[in-house]
Amino acid sequence: MNTCNIETVVESVINELKAKVFVMVEASGRHVHLSKQDLYALFGDGYQLTPVKDLSQPGQYACAERVTITGPKGSLQNVVILGPTRPESQVEISLTDGLVLGVKAPVRLSGDIDNTPGITITNPKNGKSIIINKGLIVAKRHIHISPEDAERFGVSNGQTIKIKVFGERPVIFEDLDVRVNKNFKTAVHIDYDEANACGYTKNSMGLILS
Amino acid sequence: MNTCNIETVVESVINELKAKVFVMVEASGRHVHLSKQDLYALFGDGYQLTPVKDLSQPGQYACAERVTITGPKGSLQNVVILGPTRPESQVEISLTDGLVLGVKAPVRLSGDIDNTPGITITNPKNGKSIIINKGLIVAKRHIHISPEDAERFGVSNGQTIKIKVFGERPVIFEDLDVRVNKNFKTAVHIDYDEANACGYTKNSMGLILS
């Protein structure tokens, strides 16, 4: 038997609270990153993307330009392009979207696109299409963390943690990848299947559990 | 400090394993339950549903008949009817489906349909439509349990538990309602948003955590 008194109970509660950390949660809809070469092929040589909204991660923005994504079974229209351009094009969808397209996209971290399916991208305004031979992924759930927050939370780049998201349908997401970078603002990123599964709203917060 | 020896470690592992219970997990797609009156209005007086596949719950079956569900923003075609008929019609969709229809359906247990939205149901073969004035829900995650399993698992009707689902994207679903009935076969039911969020496949198993 443990002996118990009010001081030890209070101390244990305080320690438990200290170990728990709330973070912002964002749901990412389907989107496209384009290489300069693919951007020019779709929109014309030397084309510049039109930023319309800054994203939470510094330097990243949603663009006015929209494209259509087409697979063997169907299409997704009005898909947003995120800027700036990247070395390689990448299309991020949900597993639900994959059923519409008729393609089984693997769950991968952004940038990890070796041996992933290709897909057709079309600019609906001029009818120009490209076929990328890889780059279709379902984004693996992850948390962007600034080095300061990583130290405060006691986590490091490359590890995985669990996070509880408070919504109408509370869920603990396991196997959440930690990505630490001095350019990051701390935020959990889940996709819309995950967002709907936990009843996510814009005010939903995450609690780091381990 | 606790004193430790191999016997106490083994005993603690065995107790931990005993407390953990694996169960079958099933993902439910969108579907419709019809009252006799609504069935007759859509398919004709005295119409009998055509069972084509038994479901895991004894006496429940998928039917050959399909309907179209229409909301203010869009439609879902080819939606399966589950039999037998029920006292009240009920349409179960995912939150993703709700975006297609343009209706915000509440997360509810089956049968709990007071103050839920209505929806239009159409028989595409004869063009007949009905408008139900309530009954559109997103099914709240739940587990059907036989009385024997409930006793074995130490859970009772009406409580909520947590369950971990092992898939490509491991998730712990909290707030899972326990429903005990002598006619039930033990199975966890989640919807397709939840299934996609955990990388569910037909072999995914659930582990009761509490």
Q: Topology, pairings included?
A:
The structure is a homodimer of 210-residue chains.
Chain A: H1 6-19, E1 21-28, E2 31-33, H2 36-43, E3 51-54, E4 61-70, E5 75-83, E6 90-93, H3 95-101, E7 107-108, E8 119-122, E9 129-132, E10 136-139, E11 142-145, H4 147-153, E12 160-165, E13 171-180, E14 187-191, H5 192-197, E15 205-208
Parallel strand pairs in A: 1-14, 2-5, 6-10, 7-10, 11-13
Antiparallel strand pairs in A: 1-15, 2-6, 3-4, 4-5, 4-8, 8-9, 11-14, 12-13, 12-15
Q: Your description of this structure?
A:
Two copies of one chain form a homodimer. Chain A is elongated and about 75 Å long. The model of chain A has no long low-confidence stretch (mean pLDDT 93). The longest helix of chain A has 14 residues, at 6-19. In chain A, the strands form two sheets. In chain A, strands 2, 3, 4, 5, 6, 7, 8, 9 and 10 form a nine-stranded mixed beta sheet that branches. Chain A folds into two domains: 22-27 and 141-208, Beta Barrel (Barwin-like endoglucanases); 29-139, no CATH class. Chain A is built from five helices and 15 strands. The first copy, chain A, is α/β, with parallel strands linked by helices and 210 residues long. In chain A, a hairpin with a 6-residue loop joins strand 3 (51-54) and strand 4 (61-70). Chain A starts with 5 loop residues before the first helix and ends with a strand. The A-B interface holds A 94-96, 107, 140-141, 162, 164, 168-175, 192-194, 196-199 and B 94-96, 107, 140-141, 162, 164, 168-175, 192-194, 196-199. Strand 13 of chain A pairs antiparallel with strand 13 (171-180) of chain B, so a sheet runs across the interface.
